[in-house]
Amino acid sequence: MSAHAADAARLAPARDLRSKTRWLAALVIPIGPAAVALLRFVLPYFTAPDSKAIVKSVVTKPDSQSAVLWLGLLAMLTLIPGVIWVGRVTRHAAPRLTAAALLLLVPGYISLSGLLAGDLLLWIGAEQGVDQNVVAAMYETAHPTTYIAMGIFVLGHVVGTILLGLAMWRSSRVPRWAAVITVVSQPLHFAAAFFIGSPPLDLVAWGLNAAGFAAVSAAVIRMSDDQWDLPPAPVNEATP
Fold it and tell me: Whole-prediction pTM value?
């Protein structure tokens, strides 16, 4: 037997996990936007005009603020893998749009952790009974990195989601209505948060994002394993 034939004989088929990762992706993709939709709806200080009013609102509704932190954790764990998996569906039909969207969305969602740190501070102040003026002063005293994180988050998730929705539009795998509501979702969220001040409208906005992504989940389920990813390479049994 030649050396080449011997090497080939030692190659064993690798375990194919593509079906499992497809179903995992289909499950995870809509969770992040859905978590943020609920977060924005229960946020106790949504319409508070200043830091003192924010602290007072959190003191009045500490359980709602605790829910914000739990939903924020769920969002942080699922938003980034979710959009990466959406990008896997759209990248072939719209590679540039997908790349641009992910270059904005991934740093934007990473920056979300810096914003949730302020929510944690508010909750701790309420739970420990710290003087509200002290908590408000601490909440107002932000490090420059906080403002940078806020800018990256706002720009990243608003513009990035619009671009990803456009990539969904170009994809033949996702219904056009799903692309449209994804494109509309974040401008609507921006209007609800910064101009109208409406938690129900913000719930609808992020809910549209979740619904658009749920349509991508359905597309992922319909894909074959070969459409989803390359097959695993054989494993050399001689390799330790």
Answer: 0.90
